[in-house]
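Structure tokens please, single chain.
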Amino acid sequence: MTTDTAGTADGSGRERPYVIVGASLGGAKAAEALREAGHQGGIVLIGAEHERPYERPPLSKGYLLGKTPREKIYVHPPQWYADHDVTLRLGTAVTSVDPAAHTVTLADDGRIEYAKLLLTTGSVPRRLPVPGADQEGVHYLRRVEDSDRIRAALTPGARVAVIGAGWIGLETAAAARTAGAEVTVLEAAELPLLRVLGREVAQVFADLHRDHGVDLRFGAQVEELTGKDGTVTGVRLADGTTVAADTVIVGIGIAPDTALAASAGLELDNGVKTDQHLRTSDPDIYAAGDVANAFHPLFGRHIRVEHWANALNQPQTAARAMLGQDAAYDRVPYFFTDQYDLGMEYTGYVEPGGYDRVVFRGDPATREFIAFWLTDGRVLAGMNVNVWDVTDPIRDLVRTGRTVDPKTLADPSVPLTDL
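Here you go.
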């Protein structure tokens, strides 16, 4: 194992810094990991936003609900960057990468040289491609200012239409109902989260939101956002009906932000394609977080995971690999949600339709259970709902790949650790 002490020198003899593009959770944790791993050279962290790096899950959960104070969302205190000799450049967009020259170009035409480059550019919300989608009152949730605007609109009696019943759609719907708004969720599929969870478990979330007074409409095809004087007034559907709305929240998925990777000529495939060390097709450029489609040793294939745990943990692997240390990312994917009185953790990875049965430990109707997705008797993933301190044994079940008896798996009297 080797520890890098400085970047590669340019023609002037100066040491080139390690540059991280994307002042996000992933970018901030990468800077932290580089210092912890012994890097003594320069680190430049560049972000297009004016806010210092923060975590995004609270934007649709505690922060949106007004329960999490703003200061709690930030990755580090303001002074941390200076204390650790990290140059933080905020409000600075990077427009291109030149791998041959080892430079990144900024929006003001400035250039920064790099010894190694890490892309933590994340993802961008998919836009709603219908007339009227650019009116006032139409919101996407990605940045803290988005959450601020949505929270201001979630008032008692407000009419809120949520387009898309994925995680963002359901979490914002829960926040809106908690605030006393009237909420309609419009989803093209038959159930919420159908691709992610499958029919057996998706029904749990449909029942949850209906029980809290949400008007769920499935098979809904949005044709137009109606408006008056540039402000949204409703959502017109293909069946001719219109859902009145003062506020429309669009949550129809995200796409990896690969513009810079494309400018660098990196290999792309549902994101920036990397090996298990998070190294791209260029040996001096790495990628982590939402944007990285990384080879996963446990699953033997490339996967891209759009969740907080990857942004939190992948940068540690990337930093060590950038320093020439032996590091591979093989953590089992993990994510969580909080909606009303339901808390959930999901551990594992299942392709849509890539399982042959679901086994429940506990009764889904009580919203206190564990669901397991299996194929050929092997546990691919487990989701604990209002059941706590079980993520470690679930992760171990996924990692071992051993076959288990479904009856034993479903029996609450048998400790998971025994399996």
